Amino acid sequence: MSIRQAMLALLEDGPMYGYQLRAEFEQRTGSTWPLNVGQVYTTLSRLERDGLVEQVDGEGADHAADEGGHVIYRVTQAGRVEVSEWFTTPVPRTQPPRDELAIKLALAVTVSGVDVGTLIQRQRSATMAALQDYTRLKRSGRAAQPDQPEDLAWSLVLDALVFDAEAEIRWLDHCEARLRRAAVDGSGVRRGTAAPDVAAGSTTTPTTTPGSAR
Amino acid sequence: MSAPVLHLDGVTRIHGEGDTEVHALRCVSFRAHAGELVAVMGPSGSGKSTLLTLAGGLDQPTRGTVRIEGEDVGALGNAGRARMRRTSVGYVFQAFNLIPALTAVENVALPRELDGEKSRAARRLAMAALEEVGIVDLADRFPDTMSGGQQQRVAIARAVVGERRLILADEPTGALDTDTGEEILRLLRARCDAGAAGVLVTHEARHAAWADRVVFLRDGVVVDESGADPVDDLLAPEVAR
Amino acid sequence: MSRSGGWLAGWRPALKLARRDALRARGRSLLVLLMIALPVLAVSAAAVVQATADVSGIEGADRRMGAAEARVRPVGGAVFQSPDPEDYGAGGWGTEGESAGPVPSYDAVTAVLGDVRAITLREGWTEIPLGERRVSVNAREVDLRDPLAAGLFTITAGRAAAAADEAVVNDVLVERGVALGDTVTVGDRELEVVGSGVHATIRDTATVDVLPDALGPAFADYTPDVDWLVGGDAVMWSDVLALNRSGLLVTSRAVLADPPPVHEMAEQMGYDTGYGDALAIIALVVTMALLEVVLLAGPAFAVSARRQARSLALMAATGGTPRQARRVVLASGIVLGSLAALAGAVLGVVVGWALLPLAQRWSGEWFGPLDVDWRIVAVVAAFGLLSALLAAVVPAHIASRQDVVAVLAGRRGDRPPSARTPVLGVLLLVAGVALSAYGVSASTSGHWFIAIAAIVSVLGMILVVPVVVALVARLARRLPLALRYAARDAARHRTRTVPAVAAVAATVAGVVTLGIAVSSDEAQSEASYSPSLPLGAAMVNVFPSAPMNGSPEPVSAATWDEVGAAVRARVDDVEVVRGVQQQASDGSYLSVDFREPGDRTPLLEYWGGRLDGSLVVADTVPGVAGLEGEALDAAESALAAGSAVVFAQRPADADTVRVRLDSYDETGDGGSTVRRLAWPATYVDVGGDTPVVQALVPTDLAAELDHPVGTAGIYLPDPGLDEDAQTDLDEALGGITADASLYVERGYQAPDEVVVVQLVLAALGGVLMLGGTLTATFLALSDARPDLATLAAVGAAPRTRRGIAASYALVVGFVGALLGAVVGFIPGIAITWPLTYIPADQLGSSGEATGPYLDVPWLLVLGLVVALPLVTAAVVGLTARSRLPLVTRLD
To answer: Which letter, b or e, does each residue of C551-577 get, where b requires 16 or more Cβ atoms within 10 Å of its Cβ?
Structure first.
């Protein structure tokens, strides 16, 4: 996803310069997706090119710098329209982004020599560990007692991560059940869901995919 | 770490006999320490409720021992187990926790009163517990007039009244919506932070995530355990795109 | 909805559901079955025993007339009778007109029936000596050998009497030691026992059968009635009427077998002799019993309705009508009720049959053949079914009105009580009080108003119970845990609690009312008891009994000496009282009448102190006269001066008294004045007391009567005899002569029946209360399983279940008993008026009204209200299982 609309939305709130934009973004989304300034300025210049933003004193490069030498941008009318459209248009799910875990599992089931059961188990443990971490964040700090809109926003973002991880775990549970049923029925699946050993802890590297579905 | 508050050692529970035998738990070992909240997850039939029932002394294992604060529960006898449930163990169920014929505060005071404490003193402790869970103003209401979430809070108050050291919760958020469920979890977590040991059976991962350890059960066996990771590991470099 | 099968089709699914539900909840179904079947069983058994014991009409024909066609008794006059003249309930018999005509002879019989053969039968009661004692005997003169007599007596040993000095006795005498070949003395005849056996009618008294005229003219004089056992053809009702006109009373076999319809009876036969009262009492008892059963069985149906509540709610949610919901619960009532009624009726008949030997032992007469009145059994069974239906009606109604949403949401508990019914209840209670008050003031048939008031009050009380139960729950805050829980849970499940509490309350109300009635009646008897001797004093008498052949002989002096010796051996202070013998040796009776000169008003209303005779002959005042102070002095000086001391219940102050002696012959007729005298006398006014005799007469004056003077009794002023000493003296006296008797004045002794009745009331109350509370507790415990499981999880000891069971029982029992006792006082107090109040005009000259007497049996009431609930709770607590249900959850 590009961060165009996010920048536009922030600018609609009030004119800002590049570093400010980044700071505001990160604060409102809890630094979950840190931006680098270069990315910000690149996006801003593209926006300016498309006529959605303009520099504040629009008269030329003479007054471009204020005290800190920053260039201040503000949103144009066209930009406001774009922002409004963004907020009123739902995010489509037409083209699902590549889900590494789903791909991995699909291949594990069809490629020979892979212990699917253990794979699922280990992934689940790892995701659960991540979920625990998110939850710990939730119960302390800003998200625990939101008293400003930014804190609430951060809390919602955090919940997105939580639900996402939970969805993944549920899907893993579901896969496990289906694979076991298939093994019992004796249909084409060759292995993967025999009674597992008691495995305490995991050692393979987990694939944590927070937020990659966005 | 200190000695565990709850210790299941090689516990097996078999129901029925012969052809209709059901192995609810097979040689399961399980520990819960003070200040720790442990979640138990698993599909239906995995034995998680049996684990809880054994932990609370409501049922006896076929093999193995169950120890609470060092005492062997199996050797206690029915009266001893009942006393244990009155004084050291608190139960929270998914539904029908409360006795409809008693008010909220009377429900919470129940374990103390059953233990022989005088009504007034028991009531005082009960009010303190209700305050802890934040519903003191509902003290004299009957369960019929409370919402599900409020009822569960009362149930938790009852489970913690009088400084219990072990709380066993069996799907306490099952009948509640997300937000209310989180409130309940928050309460449980706070209790464990204050020093109790908690065992939470749930099938919802995000509620299990409130625990310090998550144990996965399947077919009566512990298949996995997910321990606690420090917070810093959360934000791996390849996160944002 | 298809019309095929009509309304029955609509019931079929309901009946099927009901049957399945009954099978599934076996404990509850068994409870209901018992509740309904037991009364049915009891009444059926009682009906069987009663019908069998009642040997009426044709069943007893053989006993009364042997093989004859009719038993005819010459009475004289114009006789009217009912078909069975011995059935006094149907009118019996009587003669028209004042005086009886001449007694007809056998010709009167042949005139109507033609030349038929007959044998005579004469029977009477007398005493015969047997060893040391005298035994009461039924003596009968009839020729047992004659074929017409077949059936009157069954000979099992020996043979029938064939000569005038032979006799046949029954087994009672054989058991007393009389064997074949022994001699028995009846009157002045000595008879040889030639046979023994079983008397057709009399079971536990001795009988002696001899040939006609074998006992001589003395027996004929003693028992003048002679019956004829008539053979020949059947004697029809028209023949009976013809014979009646000739002065003959007829019991005909043909008429007994086939009585004429009512309108053919003589008009004088009033058929309303007391049946109306009996019917009303039966109706009252039946109503109360019905109410009890309904209240006891109601909770079970309520619980079953609640078990099915979910299915019924689903039915309603998918379009079922309230009527269909009602049907399901009513069907339960039908299924269980029919089963219970049938089982109860059949078992009742069997139990009745089995009890016959036991019941026979209590009856002096032989029972008849097994007699089962199937109509009564059918009625009783129908009653059982009706009570089951009634018990199911209210739960059915509630089931059809249930809050569908609440049930589907799984909320337990009943709807809050309606406000209308308690108001109606209070109104009924007020009406009950008013009716009671009216019954008090009404002079005649006041007791009916009070009985109705009792029922109205109980109904009102039943309607008020829900409010009371809710109130108790509200007040339960201060109670300990188990009681608090029980009270509140009882209020939450009113459908189950209210009938049980009402049943207990109705029982207690009935018991309290009856208890007050019985006690107050007792109090009246006690208050109106006038002792015949001072408390603790005793009197020994010898009253000669009349032998068969004449009048009693006066007691010999020798006998009195023996008696006196026996008494003196045991008691120190003994006073032999002499008096004028009332009975002369020729059999005539002496009656003495005292009047004040010039005043015809009687001096005494009544007198009597257990002395033989009404005159004491003494020269000093005997202690038995009970005089003190001035009266004693006056009497002493009178006797010393040779004057008579005459007792009066009014002031009298003449110095002489007119004495008139009348003599009556032994039949009591034909009194004639024998002597008139005037004596110097001193009158003693005893006020309202009862003097022991009419007068004290000095010996010289008594001689003027020209009548023998003997011992009238031996008076013991203060013997200090306890029960054992009394029995001892009694036996000693009995050894001397069977006619001696000892009476010790112990004041008013409550008759055994009263104590028995009170015990029976208490027992009945206890049993019903136990039944009601057990029902309620059993149902409550099964309802409370989830709560008990929660308690277990929270750490309640297993015996908590006992505590909760006992608390349920205590709440139901105590609340019910208290309510019932309070309501029972209303008719209880009211009924003491018609029962014990005697207005002034009914008591003759004593002038003052007495009563009403109110004695509340506080022990009974406290026992019912306090002790019985506690005991019931203890019993329930001890028998409840001591294991809490464990929380079982499926994974």
So the answer is: beebbeeebbebbeebbeeebeebebb
